[in-house]
Structure formats: C-alpha cells, structure tokens
Amino acid sequence: xxxxxxxxxxxxxxxxxxxxxxxxxxxxxxxxxxxxxxxxxxxxxxxxxxxxxxxxxxxxxxxxxxxxxxxxxxxxxxxxxxxxxxxxxxxxxxxxxxxxxxxxxxxxxxxxxxxxxxxxxxxxxxxxxxxxxxxxxxxxxxxxxxxxxxxxxxxxxxxxxxxxxxxxxxxxxxxxxxxxxxxxxxxxxxxxxxxxxxxxxxxxxxxxxxxxxxxxxxxxxxxxxxxxxxxxxxxxxxxxxxxxxxxxxxxxxxxxxxxxxxxxxxxxxxxxxxxxxxxxxxxxxxxxxx
Length: 290
Hints:
mainly alpha
C-alpha cells in the first residue's frame, strides 16, 4: 500500500508539470485555435536562460522572476512578429510555421548553451520542513508553485477587466472588436502568458530531468495528452487533464505496461480522446455553420 501511495503521489507531482505545460498550450490555442508545437522548446530555452543567470551568480528567485519576464516578452514577440501576419493564412501554413519555431528554438538552445547535459539546481533545500516520505522536497515545492500559478492565472482571467477582455477576444474576436477590445493586444498578451507559464514548467522540471535541448520533448507530449483529456479549450480542464495523465502514466507504467511503454501511452490517450470524446472531459463542443 505504501508503494502504491508513493507512485500515486509521484504521479501527481509529474502531473503538476504536465498541467502547467497543458495550460500554456490552451492559452495559445484560445488565442489562435492552433497547437503551438514549439511550446516545449520555448520552455527549454527559458530554462537555459535561467541556468545562464544562475551561473552568473544571480540568486535563484531573482533569476526565476527575470526568466519569467523574459519569457513573457519572448512569447509576445513571437505572436507580434510571426503569428500575427499569419492570421488569414491557410491552417497548414500556420502548422508549418509552428514546426519551424520548434526547430529554431531547439537549434538556438544547442548553439548558445551547448548540447551537453547540465545540472539545474532546485530552489528548495533538501532538509526543508515540508519534506515527506512519499515525495521529495522538490516535488512538493513544484506542486506548490504549480498550484500558485494556476490560482493566480484563474484570478487574473476571472476577476480582472484585462482578463475578461482576454477571454472575450479568445471567445469571439469580431464581437470583442465591436465592443472596443484591442483583440491583437489581447492575443499577444495570451502568448506572453503562455511563454511565462512554460518557463515556470521548464524551471520546475529541469532539476528532475537535467537540462539539455531535448528536455521537454516527452513532457510536451504528456502535456498535449493532458490538454486533450481535460479539454483543449478549457484552462481548468487542462490542469485536471495534466494531473490525470501524470497519475495514469505513473501507475500504469509501474504496475501494468512497464516503464518502456510510458511514452506510447500518451499517444494512445491522444488517439482515444480524439476518436471518442474530442472535446475532452471538461471541454465544450463548438458547432460552426459553414
């Protein structure tokens, strides 16, 4: 029983990281109705920025805040310079551009920081008071950071006028424009938030996986599965889906299919959801007249 509880808790810890990345994917999807295939590489690049600041002697939490701000600006710049000109482009063209962004950020990370594996420190001391037998201090700290991030984003979207404007722009851009909402700026803000959320996920997962340009490849696949399971158009559903995928991956990988088949499990979840419930558990079905 103790081993089962340990695997369950570890699954929740991993699911917290998947939930963060799934949330970033949903933010971009709501802004563009496309999946940003480069989200994982952008998060990895952000983690490398944090690593470079730490190597320069910057205190961890100051480097953390600076990386989040830089990643926000990076996401907003990508939307302004690359995505915005493609608003009326064919869908296939947008997909190709997102794949190109993946290659660009991956190559830039290797070119600037090298392709060798690097250690990334955890901000949480090993002997912290909140340690437990089921989870490491870093896992518990990462869960706390993820929950705090989700709570702040939920409060921003639900309780602030700017968050309401963002939701209106994502829901119906034409109607929002008629009401005076600067849709282009709101979409740029959404991309910026996605970049910042991805940066947090990258910095939380780097101490566990070690830092290299390939670090987030598997995480992005699990996050995509979590976003689909919860609902690709529902931020809350993305968080729930990320936690579900984390627990399922850990329990099934340990007791049923083995660790070698953990990654294909994400592909099976993606295909199953797309075939039987495309809207996800908490997503809504959108019907358009054509």
